[in-house]
Amino acid sequence: MERQFKYDIMPEIKERWSMRAFSEDKIDRDEIMAIIEAATFAPSCFNEQPWRFIIADDDEELEKMRSILLEGNQIWANAAPVLIAVLSKKTFTYNQKDNFWNMFDTGTAWGYLSLEAHRRGLATHAMGGFSKKRLREVFDISEEYETICIVALGKPGNKKDLPENLQDREKPDIRKGIEEILL
Ligand SMILES: Cc1cc2nc3c(=O)[nH]c(=O)nc-3n(C[C@H](O)[C@H](O)[C@H](O)COP(=O)(O)O)c2cc1C
């Protein structure tokens, strides 16, 4: 089934989807930074900007980041030339109290990141399938931060390079109707 749109919304939102086929072509640091900059312009509670990123785009760092992913994700995500760990600061800096909204705000930042990447002809795919414990150990991350996901970033690749079962799933997912999500 194809995605259906009732309304005229931003093309980037309509077209973005989480592909698994990545080209191994390297991505310029400048391009990665532009995409990160888009993320930083997300709104956040008290302008706390709780989002934090760890970028792996050279062989050594990529090897470390890949080792944190669950096997089902490694199968396809190992081809991505950039892996970005998304973390979120759990407390407000101005008073050290819990920031209930930190993951909400970091989620918005990831959304911006994915749309800017798409606008530049790049693909993103977020993964919750990784070892939080290993991410903390490998990159020495303190409890000050929540470890949320690892994002694969790169140029779209060839679906034929994926294992057969994943080739069938290599298409944009559909959505619930608007009526279903309004309470
Ligand atoms: C926080 C988060 C975690 C996800 N974890 C995984 C994952 O571990 N493996 C995977 O293949 N896809 C993962 N996905 C991708 C979702 O399955 C995908 O976004 C969803 O099916 C909607 O499809 P679309 O992004 O193509 O619109 C994750 C997405 C998000 C936002």
SSE inventory with pairings:
Layout: H1 11-15, H2 29-40, E1 51-56, H3 59-66, H4 71-77, E2 82-89, H5 102-119, E3 123-127, H6 132-139, E4 145-154, H7 164-168, H8 178-181
Helix pairs in contact: 2-5
Bound molecules: flavin mononucleotide (FMN).
The site of flavin mononucleotide has 10 residues, from strand 3.
- Spatial shape: globular
The total beta strand count reads 4
Helical coverage, percent range: 25-40%
**What ligands does this structure carry?**
flavin mononucleotide
Unreliable stretches: none
The oligomeric state is single chain
CATH class: Alpha Beta
The total tally of domains equals 1
Structural class: alpha+beta
CATH architectural category:
3-Layer(aba) Sandwich
| Averaged pLDDT | 98
Query: What's the CATH H-level superfamily name?
Result: NADH Oxidase
Largest sheet: 4 strands, antiparallel
